[in-house]
Amino acid sequence: MPWPLELAEFEKITHLVKSTPADLERAMFEEKVLEGLVVDAPDGQGLAGFAIFYRNFSSFTGKTGLWLEDLYVRPEYRGHGFGRELLDHFLSLAKDRGCGRAEWSVLDWNTSAIEFYQSRQADVMPDWRICRVTFPA
Question: Is 117 a catalytic residue?
């Protein structure tokens, strides 16, 4: 199963997936608006996990930041430190680039992810909700 679909299945939103691997390749390598990190599976079976992110800007800090769009570790590789490795590398990149902050969202029902992020000193901001307008293809 291609990883965008696997992630959407975990988040219970497969009906929203329209992206293809070509879309991601274009965003990363042609348009250069998206960056990514991967962790190879130790058993040689493809990827254990990935993180994709992009730059944003905060009018409050006056600096660029990084938005973590997706962080995903495949179920069979969870609990082995791959998520921590991906998140720590992402946060190091933000710090090394002089970003004012690094941010991401987490689903309110994903208590294991919330606990994981809090263990990495992330503030889960209960007063903020993501607003979205989706445009037709």
Answer: yes
Our CA dihedral for 50, 52, 58, 63, rounded to 10 degrees, sits at 80
User: CA-CA distance, 9 to 89, in Å (whole number)?
Assistant: 25
Q: Under DSSP, is residue 130 helix (H, G, I), strand (E, B) or coil?
A: coil
Three-class secondary structure of residue 133 per DSSP: coil
Q: Identity (one letter) of the amino acid at 32?
A: K
Q: How confident is the model at residue 134 (pLDDT cuts 50, 70, 90)?
A: confident
Q: pTM (2 decimals)?
A: 0.90
Which candidate in 54, 72, 77, 117 is catalytic? 117
Backbone φ/ψ region at 44: left (φ over 0), alpha (ψ -120 to 50), beta: left
* Residue 65 near residue 27 (C-beta atoms within 8 A): no
In three-state secondary structure terms, 71 is: strand
Q: Give ∠ CA 58-104-95 in degrees, rounded to 5.
A: 60
Q: Which tokens sit at 124?
A: 């889960």
